[in-house]
Structure formats: structure tokens, C-alpha cells
Amino acid sequence: MKKILLLLFISFQALSQSYSIRGSLVDTTGAPLEYATLFLLNPSDSTMLTFGRTDAVGKFEFKGVKKADVVLQATFVGYLPYKQLIKFDPSVLSRDLGTVKMKPIDQELYEVVIKTAKAPMSFKGDTVEYDASKFKVPPGSTVEDLLRRLPGFQVDGDGNIKAQGENITKVLVGGKRFFGSDPKAATKNLPSEAISKVQVFNDASEQSKVTGVSDGKTEKTLNLELKDEFKKGAFGKFTAGAGTEERVLAKGNYNRFDDKNQLSIIGFGNNINQSGLSNDDYQDFRGSQSYNWGDNVDFGFDSGGYFIFFGDDGNGESLGIPTSWGPDRGKSQNIAGGLNYNFDTKKNKISSNYFYNKTSQQLQQEQYRSIFLPGTQYNIRSQEKYENTIGNHRGSIRYERELDSLRTLIGYVNGRLADRDQLSDVKQQYYNLGNEHFRNQRPYSTGDGFTANMESSILFRNKFKKKGRSFLLSGTYTFNNNNTNAFQRSDIQELIVGGESFPITDSSAVNINQLAVGLSKASVLKSSVMYVEPIGKKLTWDIFANISRTLQSIDRDMFSPPVESSANRNDDLSVFYDNTINYKRLGSSMRFADKGTFVMLGLAAQGINLDGQVLNNQGGKERSTITGKYPALLPIATFRYSFSNTSRIHLSADIKESAPTINQLQPYTDNSNPMFLTTGNPDLKPSRTSTINAFFNRYDPATFFSIWSSVFYRSFRDKIVYNRQISQDLITSTSPENIHDGGDSYSGNLSVGFPIKKSKVMADMGINGSISNTPIYINQVMNNSNTKGMGVSASLNITPISWFSWFISGNIWTNYTKYSIFSQQNQTFKRQNLSSDLNFQLPNKIFITSRFNYSHQLNERINFDQHLPILGINVYKIFGKKNQHEIRLSGNDLFNRNLGVNQSASSNEVSYTNTVTLSRYIMLSYSFNMRGMKTELKRNRWE
Amino acid sequence: MKKILALLLITTALHAQKTAGTIRYEYAQDWLKSIEKNKFMNNEQKQRALQTWKNDEAYKTYTQLNFNKEGSWYGVASDERGNSWEKTEYWVRRDFTQNKVLETQMISGKVYIVEDSLYTLPWKIKSEIKEVAGLSRMLATTYDSSVITP
Questions:
Q1: How confident is the model over A109-131, as pLDDT tens digits?
Q2: Does domain A2-102 correspond to CATH entry 2.60.40.10?
Q3: Which residue in B33, B40, B55, B148 has the most chain A C-beta atoms within 10 A of its own C-beta, making it the best mutation to test that interface?
Q4: Where are chain A's structural domains?
């Protein structure tokens, strides 16, 4: 109690002896400045200690001021800010400053301040800054005309400039000297609309800048700040290289940009299997239009629907500019080039581009297939050669206009014209169970094709004042025309053997020499509409409708012998087919989101109506009609919950229904390989897929421990499968058919990541497994092949120091396939992989990176045992003042063992394929990058 | 348990009193600006990101400050819609009568309620004058050393 009393006493004492500062604020005429703002600042760093105002007669007083030196700062509209250092004197605790005089801002300037609503000028220390946009000058004026209008400036007839009564001796543009020493060069030549700010300040004289000793002289300096759009930039990259095995590469790009415009050109050519742009090059090429996430024109949740992959003509080509992750299979020569221009303002965004690429790919492969039949089996060895050349012209235009702050309109057109040539030459040797060579077959074809496709869309988005409410409307028209001509030959040679020889009954059907002329057309007109309404703070409700009408026609004429004439037309193999698919969907969903919980429930009613006819020939006799109505009710449900900010669980379930593709429906037999006939099935029904998906993940930012696990289940109704019918002479006929039940699959995985030493050594380990069932009918007998796969993987990321990084990973995968009707064929195959990615940075910006990959594939049953050690080493040096140059020596596949390997087990066959692929070469290359090379070693596996 | 009770009491106490005023804040996160300044990307990566995403608008969230003579509450604005990616909302509660501040802080994935005495930000008054909405304003800046910026 005593203590408290004492404390109280002390504090009273302290209060009674507090330091106070008072005074009164007047202008130069002695009139008091009422309600002016005053601050006391810390002299060392201008930090505010306290603030106050003058009273109605200009008096002020600060009580309880910190006993130290302080700066008094006073401000009043129209007056120059006043500053005074007040030294602390312990003997004067009640400091009276008397009257403090403030100077008005120059009357001429002040009037301008008053006249314009927004401040056209401001003071920053000793700098006076003018906002150029606030002073109107006629279009086409020079900076000189602008300066004439600035308060405090005088420009004489010769263009000499005076500011605040002094001559301007130095003019800077963007803080930098502009064309030598003549200050008029900039002011007479620059357009006034390029200027955003004009600043006047006193700069140290050139002499004192050189000597570093202040001579007390200053130069009145004018600085002109440019508007953003007049700030221009350019960047570019160029690489050329040549190597052994006649490997060459060249690529380059150049971009110019300012805040509204982006113009870029790109080109490359190589024979090292790089057919597309890297992701980085794509982004440099397309700039602000690289990704337009909002251009989706199909609203509502995905429930399958009727989708044709429009850009894809079956050759893996799409409407978008091709990008690639790594080298392709086989060997390829590639050239490409393009031009992109974007113009972006807040209200209007226009983009256009053109891109051409041509790729010639050669695939040489060896295949071994083992085919099971009820009671027996046969094997085929084949040597295959494929050559494909495709040239694509792609173009696109996109326009986005912000109609007002709530409404946006987007329109775009993407198009592609493609030309291709193909050749395939396959030599097949048939072996029976006793390994006797009983037959040779050689299917051979050459052909060419032409594709034109186009997609055009209009999209309207309307937001409302109410947050979260929106309305969307879209319309799209797409078409895809495809012409093909193919000369197809096949010759069979039967050999006499002691064992089973599966003799051919009708050799005229298997020795073909024909010309297939195909013309397929498809067009889709579709529209979607959606309305989204927020309910309260946590619920969102939407309703949507989608309609589309697809028109397809296939006109296929087969001529044998291969000359186009009506006499040669093979009516059995020729067909004209056209159909219309009407698709309608009406759906709604409800979403709940709040504090870690997300729930979505949705339901859509969908109808697919198919209406088609098959004719002998265009305008010819009708063979059959195909009609079908497929109504469906399709739900979706998603649930996500966060246990904390670092762990969450996700569950989702949905049912999708999708119509068969045009290739599955087309009612003709493709006999280009007469030993393997494919026939479309116009009676196919849509197939229904049910999916259940769950995952859990947790990441602990304190320990860096992470866990990720997921399970996935999928089941089908009316799954489309390719049933097989194999005749006595081994002619296989396959056709897509719906299987009522079956074909379900399960998969799951669990992986954990943890540090062995934080930020230096990270480890990942995982286990995954899958089960899938593939039911098909083989000669009317149901065979279910059940495949179980199981794998383990582990990886280490070692990044202990800045000049060294090492990434190691390994995985083992075992696949076990069980056949319900060929149980003696049950088999196991294994795949093991080990890779090491080792990188060093040496002094003088020299880098060594290496990648070693060892893979082993094994299937004892078919005597397949393949070891592939692949080693690549790069040594490169970066040089130049701005790190713009690089010279690189790269060794690819130094053991010369690269091979594309694929093994599979499905339906009634097991196979493996080896593809000759780009192998060992050494290349020396030089690169120049205007933006400078990266001078750090990679710290991340995926870089 | 005592702590929770105390907290509840404060909450109800604040709610019981009338709010004297509300300030609404717009918090814009322009990640292009942070890309420009970060130290882990090289010049090429930065420029590529700036060129690619230049049309993207800053991500805006709205917060509000309710205050009266006794205290204030700062947190997510009342008209902000719920989200499912944040388990805990950020808020700051100041009690002027007891010179106390309570604030949620996420450290290593865990949410802590930090209790501290009120502190005053070190404001620096600059001499730049600007007229906003007809009134003369002076530029003042501060640096909050308690906020760790990435």
C-alpha cells in the first residue's frame, strides 16, 4: 500500500513538472491563423510525437511534451509548411515561442490551387510537382506549350525557361539526361501528351557531382516524367546450335511492349523432336492473352453431355497454339513461326495472332503381340514404319469490351487449316503356339488429308450491384471439315507348317488394293445461359440451361481397284451417313461456403436426341435409319471440410452421361488392315459414368510434414467396349457395343513428405494401387480381364548449398492381369525406374547439370526384359555484363540406348512395342537473352 | 476456461455498447507489385509474369472497423460473403479503457489469440500537401514493425 502511495506521489510530482510548449500562429500581416494543424516531431526521423490545432485566435499549447529536442511543424491551407527545431532546456519547462509567422504560398500559385478542384501541384521537400493532366493544352502541343501554362513558369520566344524566377539549366526525362546538354531539345520536341508530371527542383551542380565535394551551387532542374504508355520496352531471345548426327536447332523470339500494346514474333526449327512451344515461350508469345480463363461458354457443372473434341481431328492437333513438355517419340523435324499482337485498355482488349507449324515425324517400331483365343493362341511379330507430316495454319482474333463497370462482352474466332501426308508400312509375321512361322502379312497405305475447323463464340457477362449476383449468356458456332484420301494395300503370304496354320478361306477379302475417299463434316450451334443469385452471406444458388444442335455427315467412297470411277465403287464398304444430335440440359445447383466448409449439390435434367439415316451414297438408296432419345437425370454432390487451416477433406460424387463419338457411330467397315476390321455401330447408346472421389491432405508448416491420400471409384452403365470376333482364319472384327454392367475401377494412393534436414534434404514416399475390370466379348464369350497394379515410390531432394542440388527418385510398379476365360495366360509385368538429377554451379558462372535415368521393364511370360540407362550432361557458361550470353555443350543419351518402350495387357492380348527414338548426340549451342540468363542453380525438381 | 469466459464477456460487452462509428476498408492485394519486388525470381521471370497477368485486377477484400469511446473491433466487413478456404477469420479487438489489444495470429498453421497492450504507430509527417475532396491534406507514413511482410 505504501508503495502505491509512493508511486502515485512520484507521478503527481512528474506531472506537475511537465514540459509544455505554447505560442500563437500568425501570417505575415500579423493576422492569427485559426484552427491550423500543428505537429511535434522527433527530430531524428520526423516521427510524429503528438499533434494539435490552434484555437480561434491562433493560440496553441502542447502539454506533457517529452523532455527532449522536438520539431514543431505547422501547416495551413495556402501557406508554406513551417518547421522549427525546439531545443530542450531543463531550466525552461514552460516554453513560450511567442508569435510564429507563416508565409503564404505565392499568390499566383495559390489562385491556381483554389481554381482547380484537384491539386494540380504538390510539394515534396524542395521539389514542386505539377500534374500535367490538370493543365489543358491543345492536342499536338509540345512540352513547351504545356510549360507556358504552368504557374510559376515563364518561357520566352527562344524557348528559354524560367521557373520560380530562375533559369532552368538542366532538363531530365524520367530522371535521365535527354539528348545532351541543350535543355530545349526535350521541351521543343516531346509531345505534351506523353508527360504525366513536371517536377522542378535544385540539383547539385555537375562539378560537385564529379568531385563529390559540394560547392554550394545548385542548378534549377526540370524533370519530365513520362506517362506509362510512353514507357516502352523490348525483350528477345535467340538460340542456335549444331551437333553430331546432323542435329541442329535454332529458335528466336522478339517482343515490344508498352502499357497498351504487346507485339511478338517467334520462330523455331529443329530436328531434336521439339514440336511445340515451351510454356515460357508460349507466355512470352501470347502475353496478356496467354490464358483467358473466363472464356468458357458451357455454363453449369459438367455432366458429360455431347462433346466432340473439335480441335482434335484424331491426330492430336487442336485449335490452340501447340505447346510441348518434352521431346516427342520417334524422330521429328519441326519448323514453326508466328506473330501475336495484343492491344489492352481498361475498356477494350483486342488480340490477334497467326501461327504456322510443320512437323514431320518418323516412327520405326518393333512390336510383339500375343493373342489368346478360346483353346489356343497365336503371336505376331511386326516391323512397322510410319511417316506423318502435318502443317497447320492457325489464327485467332479476340475482342473483349467492358460495356460499363458491370457488363462485359467477349467475342472470339479461332481457326485452323491443316494439310497432312501419311505413310504406313507394316510387316507382320504370324507364329503359332509351336512357334512356327505360318503367315506373312504386309498392310501398306499412303494418303493425304485436309482439315478446316473454326470455332466462334460470343459471351456476355452481367454483374449486378448486389455482390455475387450475375447473369451469363453465350452462343457458339463451330465446324470441322475433314477430307482424306488413302491408298490401301495388303498382301498375305501363307507358309506351310506342321502345326496350326489357320488357313485363309477367302483370299480376295484379305488381299486388298483400294482407294478410300472420305469427307466428313460436322457443325455445332450451341447456347448457354446461367443466372447466379446469392442468398444471405453463405449460400449461392444458380440455374442454367444448355442447348446444342450438332449436324454430322460422312461421305465415304471405296474404290477397288484404286481408281475413282463408279464402276470401281465397292458399295459394301462405301456409305453416306448423316445425323442430327439435339442436346438439352436444364440444371440447378446450390453452394454453401463458410469457414472451412463447402457443400455443393446439383441436379440436371438432360436429353440427347439422335436422328440419323444411312444411305448407299449421297442422294442414294436408304439403308437404315437411326433414332434414339436418351433422357437422364444427373446429380452431382461435393463436400469439402477443413479441420484446420492446414488439413482438409474432400468428397465428391457425380453421374455423367455422354453420347458416343462420331467415330464410334459411323456405320461402315474400315478394312484398311483386312486382318483387323473395325465397324462403327450406329445403334450405340450413351454411356453413364458414376464417380466417387475422396481425398485428405494435411500440411504442417512448422515441421514441413505433409500427407496426401486419395481414393477413387468409377463404375459404368452401358459402357462402350470393343467386342471382338475372331474367325477361323484369324480375321479379327471389332465393333463398339454397350455392355450393361461392368468395367468399374478403383484406385488409391497415399504419400507423405517430410524433411530429413529442414530446407536442405526433403524426402517423399508414396504407395499407390489400382484395380480395373475390362469386360469384352470374344467370339460371344464374355472375358473379364482384371488388372491389379501396385507401386511404391520414393524421392529425395537435396539442396544443401547454393551451388549444388541433387534430386533422386525411384519407383517400382507391378501389374498383374487375370483373364476370366484364359486363366493360363494370367501374367505379371514389372517396371522399375531410378532417376538422378545432379547439378553444380562452378565459379565464373559455369554450370554442370546431369540427368540419369535407369529403367527396367520385365514380363517373363513373353520373354520381355528391357534395361534402359539414359544419361544426359549439360555444361554451360553464362557471360557478359548483364548475363545475356550463354554457351552450352550438351550431351544427350550418352550411352546411346534411348528407345521408346511400351508394354500392355488388355482384352485378349499382351504386347510390347519398342520405338526407335532420338538417341545419342552432342550439341554446341549459343544463346542470347536480352533480359539476362538465370544465374541460379535449380532448387526445385520441376524447374 | 476462465480465459474463454473473459473473452465472451468482452464480446458481449462490446456488442452491448453502441457503435459510435464504422470505417470500411478496401484491402487490395496487387501481387504483380510483389512479383516486381521479390528477390527469388530473375528478371526474365518477373517480366514474363508482368506481361502475362497485366490485365488482372488486384484482389480486393473488405474489412471494417467498428468503434466507440471504450473500444474497437476490426475484422471482415459485414457484407463480405462467406468463404471455405479460411477456417478462422482475422480480427483485432482493442479495449481503450484497459489499454489492451486482442488479435488473432496464424503462426505455423495454428491460430493464436495474442493479448498485448495498445501501441501507437510511429507516424512520420511529410511535407507533401495534397487537396482531397476540397480539404488540404498532408502525407503521413508509418511502418508497423509488428507486421511481418513476406
A1: 544 444 443 445 666 666 778 88
A2: yes
A3: B55
A4: 2-102, 107-230, 751-943
